Amino acid sequence: MSAAAEIAPSSDFAARLARWRETGRAIAANPAALTGAAIVLLLALMALAAPALSPADPDAQDLALRLAPPGAHHLLGTDELGRDILSRILYGSRVTLAVVALIGLTVPVAGLVIGCLAGMAGGFLDAALMRAADVFLAFPRLILALALVAAMGPGLFHALIAIGLAAWPPYARLARAETLAIRGRDFIAAARLAGASPARILLRHIAPLCMPSLIVRASLDMAGVILTAAGLGFLGLGIAPPTAEWGAMIAAGRRFMLDQWWVAAAPGVAIAVATLGFNLLGEGLRDVLDPRQR
Amino acid sequence: MRPLLALEDLHAGFGAAEALHGVSLAMGRERFALVGGSGAGKSLIARAILRLPPPGAWMHGRIAFDGIDLMQADMRALRGRRIGWIAQDARLSLDPVMRVGAQIEESLRLHRGLSGRALREAALGLLATVRLADPVRVYGLHPHELSGGMGQRAMIAMMLAGEPDLLIADEPTSALDASTAMQVLGLLDELVARRGMGLLFICHDLRLVEGFCDRVAVIEAGRIVEIGAAASLGQSRHPYTSRLLAARPTL
Amino acid sequence: MIEAQNLVVALGGRDVVRGVSFAIEAHGALGIVGESGSGKSTLLRALAGLEPIASGTLTLDGAPLAALRPRARGQVAQLVFQDPYGSLHPRQTVARALAEPAVVHRLDDPARRVLAALDAVGLDAKFRFRYPHQLSGGQRQRVAIARALMLAPRLLLLDEPTSALDVLAQADLIELLRRLRRERGLSYLLVSHDLAVVAQLVERVAVMQEGIFVETLATAALRAGEAHHPHTRALIAASQGFRRGGRLDFSTHS
């Protein structure tokens, strides 16, 4: 315990900062987390800097050069309309990033709210919310997304709603399970004795403890979200052409798979790498944010 | 006479910090206590002997068990069979999804090669040996369904399956209330005497071991500060020992 | 000050406390000793308002305690939990945890009160922004006591406060509890399985077995060996340490 004698942060903020630094160090020491984080950061960079990084206009067609193999002018070749595939990959990452950011920031939060409410309230509200979750959980994600997009029409926004509606139940379940487990702990009883209302206890004491598992889950989930979005794009139900989107690019390249494999392979590899990145990040975070350390 | 267990200049620590600074002790087939406050390094010594260091820990030094160098030996052959171990809370140390009977049978199968009906009978026999009034009932329970005292008895039963020569008991009574603790100690006392086992009893309560153990080693901050007969502890001049003795309230 | 008549508390369909009566006068202290499963912790939690009382009366200065709103109740009696590792929020600094009662009750200057509470339990101000996992067991227990003192309650309910600590930390905590009681005129209701610990802190002891008080006696009488009930005698014998050749109990615990 002698090292502990020197721990004396000067403020609440300083203490929290020290904890973040510890977490950061743990992430850096974990190869999976580090690799995953690197890939995700690369994706973000690609998306944000796409205009600067693209060698060509992603929509510029050059039918004379259609289906050109990878070479000096077009590092990844051109597609069936002569558009530079590299540029389309870079711009396509914007769509992917938008989907990941929007879903990743809203769905887990919605799930957290619903799950915590259910866990805390119990009784009828709990049952009602969980049965609603069961309903949405019963559908395979892509099928549900398909049905919703078919009903509402194609487009990025509708695709997002579709994915979101299918994605929230696991977060609610997770938050509810954590809430139920934490509710009975002594420090929550102490908060009750201090006079805190159930709402305050939920918001300030319970919800923060649910975050680590939700963060891990969200990271792992993003891989699936990317695949679902690409799947929708592949089926022509995602963002409208000619906007570059990885799934749609694979669909278009399907016809040329045997002879001009690069047209479908390039976006395929991009999806695979992005998915891998989120999977690795999620696994690494799970090791680092291990709830047993609490 | 070769000591049953001998530690020579054992150093251990985590990263750059050293937690055990050259611990040496020797014990035979006796009740030997290792006493100190929390964080003194007692559990680390137990883990070092079993060669199961906590994650991130290093250790070096000489540990000899019945002449065998434990730093080089095949520990899997020794753990459970010749060196037994019981911890503070059975509910944390036993497999939570297996019934108690099944876990004892696993130990019996491994160490005595029993099977079939003989296995079940032996398991029930062990549960009776540890003075459980209803061995059949406990046989079918899961660890979390056991009370503190029952859990300790179940762990002792499991440990007896291998018929060890040395038993390491790491704070076995710290989580028990006073009367249950006395019963468990009585059980340990009888088993140790009957089977001629050596007992390494790790504890933070010096007064408890005064009446129970033959010899005591007092450890403070990773160093052994005193070793002596339990009976003469009261006359100890060492400040830490006196502190430990004085700290225990009496009625 | 506090009076209980025939309290019955049920847990999981079973009556765990089966008709308990006692009285604690202002600044007085009562100890409850019993083995695990005797119902003593449940009784304490019911007194704190964490478990519902099935039947019986509980009054404070003559008025029923149940009539008090939870917030007001917290200003009368506070509970110090047994497990120092579980009674503090793992993600909150000491200062944050201590400030909670003050903030909820909208008391002025929570920061100053936090410093005063830490000082009262003998912890240096530098511990303010540590997290629970950066404290020793004894330190965590002191923080738990400091938190209980934040609302200046008249009665401290202590649930085996030293059971999870080693002998040295236990001795320090007993000394602290003695000092606090002297300085603040607190009443204590102390639950423990350890007679010796209880005897250090209270004037009267009630022995609990299977949900009822089998004997109540003054600590002085306990020390003089004037216990009548066999269970009390058994507990006294157990507190005296291990004696080779004593009778071995053949029963299990259910």
How would you characterize this protein structure?
The complex is a heterotrimer of chains A (294), B (251) and C (254). By secondary structure, chain A is mainly alpha-helical. Chain A is built from 11 helices and no strands. The longest helix of chain A has 37 residues. The mean pLDDT of chain A is 88. Chain B is built from 10 helices and 10 strands. Chain B folds into 2 domains: 128 residues, P-loop containing nucleotide triphosphate hydrolases (Rossmann fold); 74 residues, no CATH class. In chain B, a hairpin with a 2-residue loop joins β9 and β10. Chain C has one domain: P-loop containing nucleotide triphosphate hydrolases (Rossmann fold, 3-Layer(aba) Sandwich). Chain C contains 9 helices and 10 strands. In chain C, the strands form 2 sheets. In chain C, strands 6-7-8-3-9-10 form a 6-stranded mixed sheet, sandwiched between helices. The C terminus of chain C is likely disordered. The chains are: A mainly alpha (294), B alpha/beta (251), C alpha/beta (254). Chains in contact: A-C, B-C. At the B-C interface, α7, α8, α9 and α10 of B face α6, α7 and α9 of C.
Task: Give the topology.
The complex is a heterotrimer of chains A (294), B (251) and C (254).
Chain A: H1 12-29, H2 31-48, H3 50-53, H4 85-121, H5 123-138, H6 141-152, H7 156-183, H8 186-193, H9 198-234, H10 246-253, H11 262-288
Helix pairs in contact in A: 2-4, 2-11, 4-5, 4-7, 4-9, 5-7, 6-7, 7-9, 9-10, 9-11, 10-11
Chain B: E1 5-14, E2 17-27, E3 31-35, H1 42-49, E4 57-65, E5 68-69, H2 75-78, E6 83-86, H3 90-93, H4 100-112, H5 116-129, H6 135-139, H7 148-160, E7 166-170, H8 178-195, E8 198-203, H9 206-212, E9 215-220, E10 223-229, H10 239-247
Parallel strand pairs in B: 3-8, 3-9, 6-7, 7-8
Antiparallel strand pairs in B: 1-2, 1-4, 4-5, 9-10
Helix pairs in contact in B: 4-5, 4-7, 5-7, 7-8
Chain C: E1 2-11, E2 14-24, E3 29-33, H1 40-48, E4 55-60, E5 63-64, H2 70-76, E6 77-80, H3 94-104, H4 110-120, H5 137-149, E7 155-159, H6 167-184, E8 187-192, H7 195-201, E9 204-209, E10 212-218, H8 219-223, H9 230-239
Parallel strand pairs in C: 3-8, 3-9, 6-7, 7-8
Antiparallel strand pairs in C: 1-2, 1-4, 4-5, 9-10
